[in-house]
Automatic annotation (TrEMBL):
Residues 187-277 form the Sulphur oxidation protein SoxZ domain. The lineage of its organism: Bacteria, Pseudomonadati, Pseudomonadota, Gammaproteobacteria, Chromatiales. Residues 51-161 form the Ig-like SoxY domain. This is Quinoprotein dehydrogenase-associated SoxYZ-like carrier. InterPro entries: Fuse-rel_SoxYZ, Ig-like_fold, Ig_E-set, SoxY, SoxY_sf, SoxZ_dom. SUPFAM superfamilies: E set domains. It holds the Pfam family SoxY.
Amino acid sequence: MKIVSKPGQADWRLRSLAGLFAFALLMLLGAAVAVAESEAQDDSRWPVIKSALFGEREILPGEGVIALETPYRALDAAVVPIEITAPLAQTPERYIESLHLVIDNNPVPLAGVFHFPGNRTWDALSTRIRVDSYTHVRAIAETNDGKLYMARNFVKASGGCSAPSLKDPEAAQAQLGRMKLRLPETLTSEQTLPLQLMIKHPNSSGLQFDQIARSYIPADYIQRLELTYGGEPLLTLDGNISISEDPSIRFSFAPGDASRITVHAEDSTGRHFEQTFDLPAPKGG
């Protein structure tokens, strides 16, 4: 069977295809504009937050000092992994003194403040956070000369601050405050020491609803975490409700000759937890 195109039919098909292509392009451009407008709108709380935390101080771009890695769309809004790296070559003369972690659209935007004494170089820190709605997440580093540097990412997640725990309350209570420190089996003297600290704690936000008791679960979270290395301060965290249940912190730093790390934690109800961990002996690199 032979198909014969009528005059003008090919032109009509081309015009139709061009029209469909133009329509699809407009839809894509419209979606991109909507996303940009959404992100700009979600940036509206930042001036108020900035003023409350830093006043009129200038915040510089974080390139070369601080970097932030987050998922663009989180799989679980109650457990959103973030990683902060410090490309700055830190020395006793110039180092990152504190690190503010801000989640713009959370009920309490300031998720935590990490403090560093400057006696140990560090290059990476990661934890897990709750995200209540689409938001910018910011890492603001303050160096010991008083300058501020910021890295930020937009994260799509919602409901993380009110998401209920999936763990049995009695079992969680029995393990409350237990700590685990993951370390490499061996360490050479030229390596940075990567560690992961995990603490069993509900870190309740006060926004989670108990379906059985028909009431909100009171806020109960780690508010102060102190790590010492050989008796000297290594890392301190002033935490809040935006840190996920069972807090986990990964931290890489340049070790010395000390053989122990001690962790002390205090939660918002006044309970204290403490544990000391032995470190592997360094081998010649």
